[in-house]
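Chapter review: from sequence to fold.
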Amino acid sequence: MQFIGKINITLYQCVSPDITTDEVVITNERIQHIEERHPGDYEKFAGYMAEIVAEPDYIIGTNKPCTAVLLKEFEAKGEKFKLILRLKIKSDPENYKNSVISFWQIGDTTWEKTIKNKPILYKRG
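The token string follows.
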């Protein structure tokens, strides 16, 4: 398990009011998942994850409890990312942390479709 960074709990209460930690981690199993499904993205872009979870441009609702899709654009580099974050809530086991489920670089079409078709819980701005 690797420490990614921290979230602002108040910001993420749009997903769940019961978040119990600001720490975000990623497990080795999830790193392997990302490497298999999105070859090269983890190795090239893992350094962006801390900023994505700390300062997302969008927090998008999902059909899974306590889970959010985060979108972040790094305009200077012309890069956009999608990160799935599972938040730890009071009813979860004590040893759980907020956890990255998946992460990958996306294009303009995916970015626009996500914003258009999914519930926006938060927009930076």
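Two observations follow directly from the output. Helices lie at 9-12, 28-37, 41-45, 49-54, 108-117. The longest helix spans residues 28-37.
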